[in-house]
Amino acid sequence: MVNINGFYLCIVGFAAMVVDINGDLEEPKCLSRFDYDYKMLQKLTNLENTVETLKESLRQSENEMKDLSRKIKASGSVYIRWGRSECQDEAEIIYKGFTAGKKYSDKAGGSDTICLPEDPSWSNFTTGTDGGRGYVYGTEIDISEPSGVFENRVNEQDIPCAACHTKTSSVVMIPGRSHCYTGWHLEYSGYLMTAFHGHHGPHNHVCVDHHPESLHRGEANDNQHILYVAVSKCGSLPCPPYGENKELACVVCSL
Ligand SMILES: *[C@@H]1O[C@H](CO)[C@@H](O)[C@H](O)[C@H]1NC(C)=O
What we know:
This protein has 2 helices and 14 strands, in the order ββααββββββββββββ.
């Protein structure tokens, strides 16, 4: 036995220094209580090392799991369901909100229609009134009633929207169709809407659900961002299959 810093160490035989046939290190031969303590200490150290190794591999597995679940979640696709505050079937809602865009009489501003979340969060803001800004307004539908197309009365109603996530990897909005093509899954169907032909500025087309919901207290005639039903016009567009002043249906399909 050798005494190093008050510890009694076991004399390790030459045989113990080399790995034996079984691949194990031979146990030191202990002759006293201190030898026994030392052996225990060594076992404890080994145990600690094993725990550390296990912890590390657990961490690795956890990271791999996270990565995998992120990849699974990241697959699929996203679309906005205009006119509704919920998604249907397999589609999961990301957020619901208010349909918005430029004011019908503004010369410019965003040409698109956007879905503003109902629970905005702000970075810096000033609420300053300097005029050098673009304006974003809420959306209402203008249509004469009975519309002959929508299921419910929607004139002057402000409409919600929902961002929907489908597990399917492709989504397409098809204007001029009331049904998806074979093999595709219908996310929702509706009517193609855009700006009034006599109003200023650029505007996109959106597919508004055939049964739009109205926002709570959204019936005021605000005339800000306004959506009108889009109809086909004959000429460059062949009629048939299209027709003069026919309301264009639309579908959002996924695969
Ligand atoms: C907010 O404004 C402060 C002061 O100008 C600036 O330091 C900070 O980076 C801004 N934060 C963001 C998110 O823009």
